[in-house]
Each structure stands twice: as structure tokens, then as C-alpha cells.
# Entry
Amino acid sequence: MKSPPAASSRPSAKVRHPARAAPPQGPAQSRTFHNDSYPDRAAGQSRDGQQEGQLGGASGASGSPWRYSQGRGESAREGGEPRPTPPPPCRMDPFADTLRRLREAFSSGRTRPAEFRAAQLKGLRCFLRENKQLLQEALAQDLHKSAFEAEVSEIRISQNEIDLALRNLRSWMKDEKVPKNLATQLDSAFIRKEPFGLVLIIAPWNYPVNLTLVPLVGALAAGNCVVLKPSEFSRSTEKILAEVLPRYLDQSCFAVVLGGPQETGQLLEHKFDYIFFTGEAGGTPRVGRIVMAAAAKHLTPVTLELGGKNPCYVDDDCDPQTVANRVALFRYFNGGQTCVAPDYVLCSPDTQERLLPALQTAITRFYGEDPQSSPSLGRIISEKHFQRLRGLLGCGRVAIGGQSDESERYIAPTVLVDVRETEPVMQEEIFGPILPIVNVRSLDEAIDFINRREKPLALYAFSNSNRVVKQVLAQTSSGGFCGNDGFMHMTLASLPFGGVGASGMGSYHGKFSFDTFSHHRACLLRRPGLEKIYSIRYPPYSPRNLRLLLVAMEARSCSCTLL
Amino acid sequence: MSKISEVVQRARAAFSSGKTRPLQFRIQQLEALRRMIKEHEKDIVGALTADLHKNEWNAYYEEVVYVLEEIEYMIKKIPEWAADEPVEKTPQTQQDECYIHSEPLGVVFIIGTWNYPFAVTIQPMVGAIAAGNAVVTKPSELSENMANLLATVIPQYLDRDLYPVINGGVPETTEMLKERCDHILYTGNTAVGKVIMMAAAKHLTPVTLELGGKNPCYVDKDCDLDIACRRIAWGKFMNSGQTCVAPDYILCDPSIQNQIVEKLKKSLKEFYGEDAKKSRDYGRIINSRHFQRVMGLMEGQKVAYGGTGDAATRYIAPTILIDVDPQSQVMQEEIFGPVMPIVCVRSLEEAIQFISQREKPLALYVFSLNDKVIKKMIAETSSGGVTANDVIVHISVHSLPYGGVGNSGMGSYHGKKSFETFSHRRSCLVRPLLNDESLKARYPPSLAKMTRH
# Structure
């Protein structure tokens, strides 16, 4: 058991820890955005009307941090007309103009040609290439993410998706011919992929580049106009997405909106043609429900990427060190803040005994004797989550780790044992560097345990026996599954990534992204001829026609419903 | 616990027992369903006649055949569709098994409607059963005879715990929606669609909503009007206009409006005689409320044909309205009756604009001999589906998904799409638990391992 390092002995970190920064300063940090009619965000404090044409004045009487800034669009007006009197601020809809503008752009057909879409994707590619350093710094500020993690789990994944979409765009856009039967041989039957229109993407803070850009790739490739709502918790990344990203895209078809729950709620009152929501831990089922209910008002289809407690079954028949390496890697990656991380281990007491020292070895190997000073270990995103996780450290018994440092929002890579099902650590998605081990006496008991709970986003099973791995797979359900490793299944663009039940609905990645953001329109093009054949379908109906139909059905020589 | 709650719990317990997993079980249930249909043909026709004045032909051709073909297709394809689907691997996963594994979702609710009460209730059920789910079916109470028939015969042929039928009206449906399930497929109208999705949101249940809309039918000057009008008349007036994919209204150039009227009239007389009321083949409106509603839509309109109705028998004559004002009531709601308004437009562009300004419909129809016209119409509009130079028939191609977009719905089914809709496609990667040395590079500490572009 490691004793907590004295604060003063910590080496000076290469990156500024956001936890130690003072609370947000307020209006001094001017945020200028490139989209018209786009509210400035004054972080919780009222602005002093510094910008010309701003509404609301200094008092902030409306209570909302939003200020509706007019002016940019107006300056282009001809004739030097006087500015219109701004309407009263209280009932203002800060999004109406932006959404209208994007809808008009969509209706104009601008996003339809492959060239336009490819240009957007190339813009995204440039954005990543030219701002890699900036993004790495932001990720370090937001999550203490190491350059390695940033590269592997954020930047490279996004780049790969962009490249895949660019390579395959035209083929994905093509009409998909479908099998025809005898009666339709002369017809043309195909599925036309069409953009939905105006898409809303709501992104989380844990992989703020990946989970924003990868859906964006799909939405743009499919020809939609996009409103992006990045997470306000990953502030440094949010700033880049709001200020830098739009420069690389056609802003008549793309907008970033900022804000917290109140603004997001306001945004969701509007009609979108598709909503893609990736949730954040702790409240994901609840927020997922809110998003779907808001979508229901407008009959908007949704993809919800939520979370869950991803079980990790470790069989007696395994090499504990290999298992420990893999489980530890994927558990503690990004400070444990990964929706597909193994959330808890299920194993026999014997296996637990073998796993514990192996986990300690893995942790030491990865993060050194003093994990707090390792540049490879992330930090918790916010004070609220830090406190939540610190509370969980009290569950069961700490077998490894257990230290925490509030000033850095640091939690040590921790393993808990003797954990009861009813304790908080087994009731909510952990989303932190804490790994509880729950004992089961058999594979069947493990499977029962898993099936008593909500379907998770991911499920893991470790065993030398392929039969055991396959049995876990066959007798459970989850968004995705990996046998003998952590979330590697996510690295294949050929596998759909998504949840089931409480862990979500819909999926994406690779071509699945394109298909998710497209309406699949069934098309049948007929010729005016062959009327004689079809005449059997017209009234007046005779017993003879019916007999013919029944004979044809028996013979199954054609699809009779097509006559 | 309410009776409905018990029924749903029993279905869930039956599903959890694993009974539906073996493909053989599912195939047997589908074969039993097929037997049920064959052995109760007369009862099915009887129910459809009582509910909607359908005759034997209507029953078979418009409903039974669809379902039987779906069952055939499903039985044949289950082994292929249920099998693991290998996917393309990355360089890092060459030694691994990478595939998509299809699983049932669990308990599926199917809420049917009254216009094709057999087909729209049973056809989704076929897909849900094939995918290995338990299925709770709620037929529409408006088509009372069919609802009673299904509640009686289905339990005689299918597993009673897994595939219960619940009957009732709004209170029963509301009760049912309080229960948690794993997918809801609803066929009906937009307003109720929203209620269903709202209820589903409470449990994070995915939904397929087959709704409606005003399906436009553009008739180009350059087309064979005889054939076009015959096909349009067939699709519009079948089931007395009560078809979610019926052409709702016609858009055409004023110069051909009269011809269209004449040819529609000619076809209608061929189909239903001078007085459709006497025809065995012409349907009736489902109930008085809808009868009044549809009659009301004709008020103030220029009637070129028909325009009469008989409340006692809920008969409405095949009706054609001309020079219809787009602002009038008949152009504001889905007609769902034997009334065909003709709205004049001066060009293809105007037609496209007219369509695009409105909610996306379930179906769109375009008649033209000119491929360019067809292509442009499809390219510049959106809808659930399209048939060019005919109506309705795109929904009978098993390999085409059947569903709406925007207000006309979300999700789709039929054929393989049914199987997918009612399945969870689970991503799987299985690797051997071998020596970890080969994977060394991915473990921290990683500073030295940063790759640079």
C-alpha cells in the first residue's frame, strides 16, 4: 500500500493542472465566435455590455449568462439603415437565427454534392493536422491526458475516420441496388441514401475530440448541416472547437453552440432532423431519457450513446499477469473516464488472490512507484466527479491505491475488494480509476449476476478457454463484447459501436456513421408497360383471378404482391 | 399487478428462459403461424369484411399474401441472418475473430392499426419472432372483428406465454406503455406516434414508428395518362382510400387536369361500375367519426366526380376534386379516404417546391416517361419511399425497407430490415489470451513511444 506522497515533494508538472486554477474569471476572457447571432458566454457572470449592440445591459437581470449579440450580420446591410431596436432580452431565443440559417443552407442543396462534402472532410483533416499541438495541450489541460493517449485515442482515431470517409464517400453515397425477383426484373429497385437535414451532435468531455469529430465526420459525409454542442466541462477543448474548428468548415452549414444544461435544454426545444447524443457518466440514463423525450416532441430520430457498468469476467483458467495488464490498461486509461472501460471484475476468490499482485505489478509498471507523478495517468474532469469518486473509495476495502489529492483532482489507480452489490460503487457507473472486484463461485453465477443488471455498453470475458468466452457471449447481452482484451473492438471501423437497452440505441463508426446520419429511402422505378400483367390486380375481382393468384402463390414462382 | 403487467412479465420470463434462442424454435413458430393463416382463411376474410367491407380478393391480395410471403422469406433466411457476420479486420486484429453477432432484443411490443388490420399487425410480428423475441401484440380496437379473431386464434397456434395478444383501447394501450419492453413498433398517426415515443423515452426503448402523411402524386405532361390514371385510381381507391401509402393528392399542369379527371373516371367505372356502392369490391369507411371527417373535407370544393356519401353504411363515393386550393382543409391533413384532390402546378420545379415545403410524406409518386423528370423529383424531395410510374408497390419488395422519415416516421421493417430492426447487432472481438509481449507497445509508460506524424 502506497503512502500518499507529500504535496511538496511533487515535481513540477509540465502542464498546468486545471484543478489548481482559480475559478473562471468572468468577462475578461472575451470569446469571439465566427458564427453570426451567436451568444457570447460569460462564465456565469454578467457582461458589462462591452460589445456594441449587445442586449441586456450590465445588470444581467435576465439571469442567463447568455447575451444575444447582434451586429455582425447587420454591418453588411446596405444603405446605412439604422439598427433596429433590439427586442427585449428575456424571451429571446438565442438559437433561432442560427438554426434558420442552417436550414436555409440545407434547403439550398449546398451540402448534396460529393465535392462539397469531401471539402468539409478535408477541412476537418486540416483542422486536425494544423492544430494537433493545440489540441494536445487542451486535452492535457482538461484531463491531464498524455500525448500518447491524446494521439492514440483522440487524434489518430478521428483522422482514421476522416480518411475512411474520404476514401469511401462516393461509394457510400451511391444508390444501393437491392435483389429483385422475377416480377421486378424490368424495374429498378434501390435504396437512396439522403441526408436528414439539420443534425444536432451533443458531445461529452471524456474524449472531447474523438467523440465530437467522429460523429461529425458521419454527419458531414452524409450531407447534413450540423449544430455541434461540445461539453462545457472540457473547457480548453471546447474553446478550440468553438473558435478554431469553424474556420475549416463552411459556416453556412455548420455551427457550434455553447452552454450548460439550461442552454442545452433550450436548444433541444427546437426541431432537428436527427439528434446524436453521447452521454456523460453518472446521469446518463437520466439525460438520455431527457434527450429522447425532447426528440419525441418533434419525432426526431436519435442515436444515444450512453453508458453502464461494463462487467469483466475473469475465469480461473487464465494467466493472471496477462489479464491484469490488459484490465489495468483499459481501466485506468484516461483516468478511468471511458464509457467502455471495464467497470468491475467478476472472479472467484482464488483468482482474485492471483490477480491482486498482478494488478499491482501492472500499475507499477505503467505508472511507476508514484502514480501521481506519472505523465501517463489522467486527472478527474471536475470537482464534482472527484468528490463522487472519492466517496466510492470508501466502499469495500482498498486493496491497491486509494489515495487522492483534491488540489489536482487526482485519484490513484485503485482496486477495491470485499465489495457488496448494494454499495454505491456497484450501483453507478464508476467512470474513474477504481476497479472493484466482486467474487462469484462459478461462471453461471457470474452470468446470472450480469443478467440481473442493465445491459452494459461493453462486456469482457478473460479465459484461456474459448468455450468459456463464447458462453459468456452467448448468455449475456451488451452493446459490444471483447474476449480476452479491453475495448479493442472499438478500434475497428468495420464494427458498429453502440449500446443496447439502458446503454443506448443506434450505433456508428465507419460506414455505420454514414448510414446512421442518412435516411434510407426505398425507391422502385417502374416502366409504364407490362400493363397486361398487372391487370390481374384491378377490380372487378373474379373468383378466376383469385384462383390464379392462389396458384401462383403455391408455385411461389414470383412475388405476387408485386402484381 | 394489473393483468397487462402480468402478461408482459410472463412474456419476459418466457424470453429469459432462452426458449426463443434456437432457430428451430423460431422457425416452428413461424410455420405454426402459416398454418393458422391457412386454416383460418375464411375467418380472416370474415373479419375483414365485417370491419372494412373487404372481400376475399382484398383480403388475400392486400393482406394475407404479404404476410405469407414474409413468413416464407423469413423461414428461408433465418439461418443466414442469424449467423455471425465476419467483418474486415485491421492489421492489429488479424489473428482475432471479429464479427457482428445478432441477438434478440427481448420483449417487443407491436401496436397495430385498423386499415390493414391483419397485415400491419402480423407482418411486424413475423420479423420479431424470427429475430428471437417475445412479442406482445395489441391490435387496433377500431377493427374490432379482427382484434377478436387474433386474440382467439393466435394463442391456439403460437406459444401463449411468448406471444400474447392484448386487446382494448386507449386505457389498455396506456397501461401497456407503462411496462418496459425492448422495442416498440407502432403503426398509426403522427400525434399518437409522439405519445408512443415519449412513453418509450421513459425506459429508453427504441421505437419504429410507421406514421403517415400526404403522399404527393406528380403527373407529368409527358406520360401515358391512361396507364397512369388507372394505376393511380387503383392505389388511391383501394380500401376506400384508407391506405397509408395511397397517393393522397395529385399535382399536375392545368392543361392536363381535365384529361386526368376523365381517365380517372373511366378507370373507376371499370373497377367499380357506375355506382360504386353496389360494387362488391369497394370498401367502407372504418367508423362514423372518420366518415364525418372525410365528408367534411369535401365541403366547399369543386367536385368533378362523386362527392356523395351514405352515413348509414359509411360509404363515400369515389370522389375527385379539381382546382383545389392548397390552403383548404383537404390539403392540410392526410385524407385517408376516397377523395382525390387535384392541385395545379405550372412546372416540375413548382411541384418540387410545393412538396418540399410540406412535411416529408411516407410515399412519393411521380409519373413520367422522362427519366430526367423522375430523377429530379427524387433528388430534390424526400419521403419514406418512392415508386415511379406506379403507386404503392415499392412496399411489396422484400429487399426494400418500409418506413417513413420526419413526420411520416422513423425506422423501417419488411424482410431483412425486420430482422435487423428487432435484433441487437453486437460487435464482437475475440482474441487469444496469449503472451502479452507482442502488445507491449501499447502499455504505459509511453513517452518514448509517441509516434510523430
